[in-house]
Design brief:
Distance between the termini: 39 Å
CATH class of the largest domain: Alpha Beta
Oligomer: single chain
Strand order of the largest sheet: 7-14-11-12
CATH topology of the largest domain: Adenine-n6-DNA-methyltransferase TaqI, Chain A, domain 2
CATH architecture of the largest domain: Alpha-Beta Complex
Strand content: 15-25%
Helix content: 25-40%
Largest sheet: 4 strands, antiparallel
């Protein structure tokens, strides 16, 4: 929230570059498209003739420039580093002609447009999947048997009737995995950069392929925890604080994974049965977690058809997300080579 007194705010014009002097070593800057004012915490750089501001915006994100910003910043630690204009103005760079700057910016913007288009497709597909699950739940979408008749209406079923605790523990052969909102059940070191597991893994819970995990801790926009299926084709282990459950059928497990991708669905299920403790810990036993009911398909054949449809959507979504990652990596590598 901005202060009501704007007398110290700085004027910014179109094509100006505003940067956070305390965070420039992280590349915290942007090009303004408008005339307006910004916080006094920002430094404003106005381009001279034959300068493309967006060229510098991309340049400022490269490893080389980030290193220069760290090198020229003043302060004892990263929390106090500061890069005011007299310091940043001392940094020397190799500057191409305005024609080359423009071509570089045009090419990078084409890449950005491609990424933006794919991200919009990815979001639309995720919205479609969410709508598909909701329409299944409300009966607006129904699957037919092979003879053309509809399957029987879904039944209200307690999770305790379809999810079971095997209570298996670490055997000495499994890797430690984390549970992520977007990545699902993922190797902890690959996801977080290092292991946060204790040295003694004997109490860590074994997770078989297809098992569901309830994390019992707030993550992202899921204030009461997340529920994910292990889609890896091997046994792994997770924190002993998590609940681990084997579904009656892998198809139901896949449906529940898709159903609980929605933060609204997750909250609606968990809110009546979870009590928040100190430091946002979830006071809920596995027995209580399984005590509520959901409307679910009871016929295995229908469960399979639903699961197959979900897998088709997931495969399309994964293909788009992989393409986004590849293009972003290409852009990152291109920037480093282009600005050496």
């Amino acid at each position: 929230m901005s202060n009501s007194n704007k007398s110290n705010y700085k004027r910014v014009l179109p094509k100006d570059i505003a940067y956070n002097s305390m965070r420039m070593w992280q590349g915290a800057c942007g090009v303004s498209d408008y005339e307006g004012i910004v916080s006094p915490a920002y430094t404003i750089l106005s381009p001279k003739n034959n300068i493309n501001s967006k060229f510098f915006y991309y340049y400022f994100k490269t490893h080389y420039m980030i290193y220069q910003f760290m090198k020229y910043s003043q302060g004892l630690t990263s929390d106090t580093w500061n890069l005011k204009y007299p310091l940043i103005s001392e940094i020397k760079i190799n500057l191409p002609s305005i024609e080359e700057q423009n071509k570089i910016v045009m090419f990078i913007e084409l890449i950005d447009k491609k990424i933006d288009l794919l991200e919009k497709k990815s979001n639309l597909l995720k919205e479609y999947k969410h709508g598909f699950i909701q329409k299944l739940r409300t009966g607006k979408i129904k699957f037919k048997k092979n003879d053309g008749t509809y399957y029987s209406d879904w039944k209200e079923i307690k999770l305790s009737e379809i999810l079971f605790e095997h209570k298996l523990k670490y055997t000495g052969n499994e890797e430690v995995y984390s549970v992520s909102v977007h990545k699902g059940v993922v190797n902890q070191i690959e996801h977080l950069g290092r292991s946060f597991a204790t040295k003694d893994l004997s109490k860590y819970k074994l997770v078989k392929p297809g098992d569901l995990i309830y994390t019992k801790s707030p993550t992202g926009g899921f204030e009461l925890g997340i529920i994910k299926q292990n889609k890896n084709n091997k046994n792994v282990v997770v924190s002993p604080l998590y609940g681990v459950f084997t579904p009656k059928s892998k198809y139901l497990g896949n449906y529940l994974d898709a159903y609980f991708e929605s933060s609204v669905n997750t909250r609606n299920y968990l809110h009546p049965i979870v009590q928040k403790g100190a430091k946002n810990t979830m006071n809920i036993t596995n027995k209580v977690f399984l005590s509520k009911s959901l409307y679910l398909p009871s016929v295995l054949e229908e469960q399979k058809k639903i699961s197959d449809s979900i897998n088709i959507i997931n495969q399309k979504s994964e293909k788009i997300d992989n393409n986004i990652l590849i293009i972003k990596q290409f852009k990152k590598g291109l920037l480093q080579k282009m600005f050496v």
